[in-house]
Specification:
about 375 residues, single chain, 13 helices
């Protein structure tokens, strides 16, 4: 008689309700905090305190429509569509340079009908995840992956270069998503150190170009924000974090959101969360992110094929990079740059794409056969 217990594989269709639950909770918290943060500015600018909330609800609804579509269809459909989506995203990233709408001196949005706009760079992120997952699935043998890794880096460089013209921070995220996915898939560690070195050198050269000198200035502002006028936003964000204490001033009681923190509903919303909910509330939100990322990792590990595994892994990398970079910028751990806090910051195309990406991961989860 065998002493070891045998694992029984259940032939039941699995669905990760935990991941969906954590997504809904994060979105709920995000909508509450967005309204609390943006109501004052929205009233002054548009005469409607719910202006940003309404637009975020519309974007979230579009994201959920895409999420349910992804759940209903077999995720292998996106393996077949990976290259068309990738090529379309590259075309849009190039098009926006010449025909996009300018804001704050940069052309990053494409307008549709004058009422709706989106950022092609957000589509490029999910497109890169899909195409790299498809390539890794195709060259599933370790030896084939090793031989093709340099070709796959070309796939990463193309959208990175196109986006870098107008949005360096997003280009760095796109490159990081591809870099980490390929690093996990390949065993050529020396090659990755070489690519990382070239990437760092390219970033340094970019900052030294006279027309792009303001990007180097961000490092000087980061080192000593009190010395420069441009460090105002960073300092006000830190004041908000410090004044929140352990349990915060209370929901809706922030002082810094009354114009002291510019664009508080966007990249700096985490500072208002700290002010109103305190360190305790900020930690609770970070724990929610950790739980959501844990479910993505679980699905990536147990996916039935490499394509599904790397789709879930790519989404996890995308979300985690945004969370880490946003919190690092708000706390002045890294130089200030435009990175949103997933599911919480105001941003139409960003939140819609992120919700759709979670739908892809949920679709992958349907192929898992849980063991007990």
């Amino acid at each position: 008689m065998e002493n070891e217990k045998k694992k029984i594989v259940l032939n039941l269709k699995y669905f990760d309700y935990s991941l969906l639950f954590f997504l809904i909770v994060l979105l709920g918290v995000g909508l509450v905090m967005l309204y609390s943060t943006s109501a004052y500015r929205a009233t002054l600018s548009f005469g409607d305190g719910t202006y940003y909330l309404k637009r975020q609800l519309i974007s979230s609804a579009l994201g959920f429509f895409a999420l349910f579509f992804c759940i209903l269809v077999d995720y292998h459909l996106f393996e077949k569509l990976a290259w068309p989506i990738y090529l379309a995203s590259v075309f849009l990233c190039v098009f926006v340079i010449f025909g996009g709408r300018e804001s704050h001196g940069q052309s990053r949005w494409i307008d549709i009908g004058g009422k709706f706009s989106f950022q092609p760079s957000e589509i490029a992120k999910v497109a890169l995840i899909l195409v790299l997952a498809a390539i890794i699935q195709k060259y599933s043998g370790a030896l084939k992956i090793e031989k093709s890794v340099m070709k796959m880096f070309i796939v990463v460089f193309v959208p990175t270069a196109a986006v870098a013209v107008n949005n360096l921070s997003t280009a760095i995220i796109i490159f990081a998503i591809g870099f980490i996915m390929l690093f996990i898939a390949s065993r050529k560690s020396r090659l990755f150190f070489l690519v990382a070195g070239f990437g760092a050198a390219g970033l340094a050269i970019t900052m030294l170009i006279p027309q792009l000198a303001y990007r180097f200035d961000r490092i000087k502002i980061w080192r000593d924000p009190e010395k420069y006028d441009e460090g105002y936003q960073t300092l006000q964000g830190l004041y908000a974090i410090g004044s929140g204490g352990l349990f915060g001033k209370g929901l809706g009681e922030s002082i810094q959101k009354m114009g002291s923190v510019p664009e508080a509903q966007n990249d700096m919303i985490f500072s208002i969360i700290c002010e109103e909910l305190g360190l305790f509330g900020a930690i609770c939100i970070i724990i929610l992110y950790i739980l959501l990322l844990w479910r993505c990792l679980f699905i990536a590990i147990h996916a039935r094929d490499l394509f599904g595994s790397y789709v879930a892994l790519g989404v996890m990398i995308h979300i985690s990079l945004h969370v880490i970079l946003n919190i690092a910028v708000v706390t002045n751990t890294l130089p200030n740059t435009g990175v949103t806090l997933p599911f919480i910051s105001y941003g139409g195309s960003s939140i819609a794409i992120l919700i759709a990406e979670v739908g892809l991961v949920l679709s992958v989860s349907k192929g898992i056969q849980p063991e007990v």
